[in-house]
Amino acid sequence: xxxxxxxxxxxxxxxxxxxxxxxxxxxxxxxxxxxxxxxxxxxxxxxxxxxxxxxxxxxxxxxxxxxxxxxxxxxxxxxxxxxxxxxxxxxxxxxxxxxxxxxxxxxxxxxxxxxxxxxxxxxxxx
Amino acid sequence: xxxxxxxxxxxxxxxxxxxxxxxxxxxxxxxxxxxxxxxxxxxxxxxxxxxxxxxxxxxxxxxxxxxxxxxxxxxxxxxxxxxxxxxxxxxxxxxxxxxxxxxxxxxxxxxxxxxxxxxxxxxxxxxxxxxxxxxxxxxxxxxxxxxxxxxxxxxxxxxxxxxxxxxxxxxxxxxxxxxxxxxxxxxxxxxxxxxxxxxxxxxxxxxxxxxxxxxxxxxxxxxxxxxxxxxxxxxxxxxxxxxxxxxxxxxxxxxxxxxxxxxxxxxxxxxxxxxxxxxxxxxxxxxxxxxxxxxxxxxxxxxxxxxxxxxxxxxxxxxxxxxxxxxxxxxxxxxxxxxxxxxxxxxxxxxxxxxxxxxxxxxxxxxxxxxxxxxxxxxxxxxxxxxxxxxxxxxxxxxxxxxxxxxxxxxxxxxxxxxxxxxxxxxxxxxxxxxxxxxxxxxxxxxxxxxxxxxxxxxxxxxxxxxxxxxxxxxxxxxxxxxx
Lengths: 126, 484
What we know:
The structure holds two protein chains of two kinds. By secondary structure, chain A is an alpha+beta fold. Chain A has helices spanning 29-35, 82-85, 89-92, 116-124, and strands at 7-9, 14-19, 22-27, 38-42, 49-50, 55-61, 65-69, 74-79, 100-103. In chain B, a hairpin with a 2-residue loop joins strand 8 (302-306) and strand 9 (309-313).
């Protein structure tokens, strides 16, 4: 995963990397930079069914707490346990540290997300 | 100042005592017999063993590290840190009030009851509401009370599908928190390009599952929601209620009333708008007023006047019940009553006018050196952005830390969330032009330094008791209690 691979981006600043029918979800560099030092990440329970737009988790920084919305629908398969002891990993390398992996139930939903170029344009206007 | 970081527990010396009690000259009571075995402790309490002078020095030195509105300018946006007139304290300390017992016969407490009754009337008039409960102990509890009333209202109409509370993305964090605590589903609406509620988005959300909308007006950007009448009409049309978060009431006292804007429930912080101490100097008080239709749901007791006597009325079958022990924080209500009496209706109006004038004065004097994302005539506060300074590595946090070195309490930072590098400035009405000018000059100098010597600003504060703290560590591994 990470830069160099094809990522999809949401307007709420989540990224998705798709590997077969697995979707890795994290927050973008812009999101971690806006939040500042992250002190806690609340991850979902594996097995939980999530529909597009629902809250997948919460990222808490010294400045604010922000919901992470799931850009697609699916079932939570696993979460990134490393974040429990070291939430700052997201600040260090946001694209190397996903928050959760969910099943990709409807690949068509990806078409509603942005590619890297579109996302870069999008954050210029935020 | 002698630097002594020890807690009072660490100053304890076994056997040292502060004072000696005289020999017991009343009959001994068998405590176990009186209260029962189970409630008596079997070991000595673990309290510090220190002399009287140790205690006095400990707390006097701690108090010197404090910063309050009595020490200097405190432009903490959204918090209305106005000066607390000392006459309020004198009145509240009078024996006739301070020696009251909440359970004494109401017939012997008519003066205090009269004050509560008249305060209800005064706040009802200021808010444009029918009746006010003085019970909530602070703003967040007022919100909770308001939401419980919203719920009780819908349930009383057998309209139980209303599960959603709408809050703007610029709202105070307590709004969605209170709504969630009250069992509602929270729906956020975005702000439009003017910084106000986006009417088009609101339109798409409103349906018969909406219980109500919570709004601060002026909002957290310090801007008046100009479409409030339209918003109110839309929410009411779909059957929802409108809750007014009164955190920013200081901008509109005697000028505009939430009731006239269409709000059904209006909250106000006595510990902001009505000059009672705020924060560590509290406790607070967050009364809420309601329109006529919602009066039956107010917490009990309500104070009524019957045959020249003030009485507690508990006979309210639809009431949500009590939300606070006894009748609320009486002495805080009393201080606010004193303030309202002292100011009078014209005085309250001119306080709001001066608060708005002061905020606009600072805004105009800083608009060329800082970005102000929603730059138009503001109300009692405004939000500027340190985005320009952040390009040189100087963030809103750095500016706040440097203000500490300059002897100011910093503004609220990183709120509202919709403004990057936000600094939210609320001067209040009690500041002189000289104080405002001094603050403006400091802010301008910091903006200049952010261009010429940004590195220097990264190291503040230098003059405070402790320097810059590790916020991540404080959040991740806080030390919450002392252990031997």
